[in-house]
Amino acid sequence: MYITQGLHRHVQQRPDAVAIRELGRSLTFSQLADRVARLAGALKQLGLASGDCIAMLSRNSQRYIEYSLGVPWADGVLNPVNTRWSVAEIVYSLDDSGSTMLIVDDTFKDVGAVIADQAKTIRHLIYAGDGETPAGMLSYEALLAEAEPVEDVRRGGDALLGIFYTGGTTGFPKGVMISHSNLAFASICAQVKGFFGRNAVFMHAMPMFHLADFSAMYGLMVSGGTHVILPAFTGEAALDTIIAERVTDLMLAPTMIQMMLDARQANPAKANLELGTIRHIVYGASPISPALLDRACEAFPAAGFFQGYGMTELTTGGTMLDAEYHCAEHQASGKMYSAGRAVTCVEVRIVDDQGREVPRGTVGEITVRGPNVMLGYWNRPEATAEVLKNGWMHTGDGGYMDSEGFVYIVDRLKDMIVSGGENIYSAEVENAIASHPGVAQCAAIGIPSDKWGETVHAVIVLKPGVTASEEEVVAHCRERIAGYKCPRSVEFRTAMPLSGVGKILKNELRKPFWENRARNVG
């Protein structure tokens, strides 16, 4: 399958149906196809050769979707740039991938010029904004207007679709190679689950550079639903867009759900907004707390909630917890706290350090095999060999599987805290802390201890207007987990460092404690 196939199908069957809505503007499938074909023609005129990498640094937009289709249409490879990265990290990713062109929007036009000046391989800097084209840049719209549309090369199958960089907070980022087949499979899985139907209206709330949103983007393109663009996420803007566009499907991190609900609660004019158009909410990056789920179910009365577990190397998808397991019965049984079961056509095993499957209920490393598994890491054969073994992707996540195949995430293995010879999984500590009614966000990390090697340190963001003490938090934990697992110190903050998809950046929390030490563990 080639990733532009869905667009061709809907141009043939429903050319005048609305494909994209953004800021009051609409684009039909036939109009989208014309712009994509012209973008491909423009890129070829600028010298794009088969397999060349084209990068984009931009907020969510219609043009981002055009880029996502136009580059493979022209036989190129995508490099969606993480908007949260520093200049140095972006330059590294451009040089590492050999990207020859960089497309920037209004938000990133200034820093884009700096990046293009430093990157060794960038030949053209393209401005895809709505203002006057800055000096030294090519106008995206002028390129499209002047270019002749070209035929789709139908790059597909196991050919490289894109290089999606992951990491970058420690060491150098790794480029995850995703094929057309990888992402096509993710689209099929979405259809099996009933997401993104022909009548779906999907709001792009996650950043488009992230593979999770790419998966939704292409899944919707297959079904022929409507893309609604949210340029940048805020709780209030998301609520307004859901109402105005009658959105039916969402993909969010739990932190984003909380931001929407908090915005609704804080604004009396929005407190009674009717949000019943929402049918599906897929969340990931972290589990959802029962308290937040209860609030969300009340706000979105017709929505089914689905938890997805995955990573970039798995084209985002490994397991899914279906809507039925979010009910009170499965909260009581514990099923809601799992990451669900393997998605369609995927195998999941829990293995020991020798790669042998462990008995059910035993903690080991989660491994995944299937058509979703990446091709490998770009230019990193040794790193690829470390995680891809006999067709199995070794995730680096610790967990166990119950007798029905439900996978329970215990921790990121590298986040394990070893204190006095005891292994402490931070997720268990975090679950205990999060059950405190005053806690909005929390993280448990290991910090150095001369006596114990490491001790558990808790970082907490309290809910607005709530106060709590270190002693209160520790006492609360002691009622729920063994004493040696409880925090030995507690830090209160007003905000957490978050990734582009809402994950707490634990490495940023650890950094001050482990600076100037030879090792980052005790």
Précis, in short:
By secondary structure, the protein is an alpha/beta fold. The protein is built from 16 helices and 27 strands. A hairpin with a 5-residue loop joins strand 21 (about 390-400) and strand 22.
Secondary-structure blueprint of this entry?
Layout: H1 5-13, E1 18-22, E2 25-28, H2 29-45, E3 53-57, H3 62-73, E4 77-80, H4 87-97, E5 101-104, H5 109-118, E6 124-127, E7 138-139, H6 140-146, E8 160-166, E9 174-179, H7 180-192, E10 201-204, H8 211-223, E11 226-229, H9 235-245, E12 249-252, H10 254-266, E13 280-283, H11 290-299, E14 304-309, E15 319-321, H12 328-333, E16 341-342, E17 347-351, E18 364-369, E19 376-377, H13 381-387, E20 388-389, E21 392-401, E22 407-412, E23 417-419, E24 422-424, H14 426-434, E25 439-449, E26 453-462, H15 470-478, E27 489-493, H16 506-514
Parallel strand pairs: 1-11, 3-4, 3-5, 5-6, 6-7, 10-11, 12-13, 13-14, 26-27
Antiparallel strand pairs: 1-2, 8-9, 9-19, 14-15, 15-16, 17-18, 18-21, 20-21, 21-22, 23-24, 25-26
Rg over CA atoms, rounded to whole Å, is 23 Å
The overall pLDDT average reads 91
Low-confidence stretches: none
- Gross morphology: globular
Q: What is CATH's topology name of one domain? A: Rossmann fold
Structural class: alpha/beta
Helix content: 25-40%
Strand line-up of the largest beta sheet: 4-3-5-6-7
CATH architecture of one domain: 3-Layer(aba) Sandwich
Count of DSSP H/I helices: 16
Distance between the termini: 49 Å
Outline the biggest β-sheet: 5 strands, parallel
Determine the strand fraction and express it as a percent band: 25-35%
Q: Number of DSSP strands?
A: 27
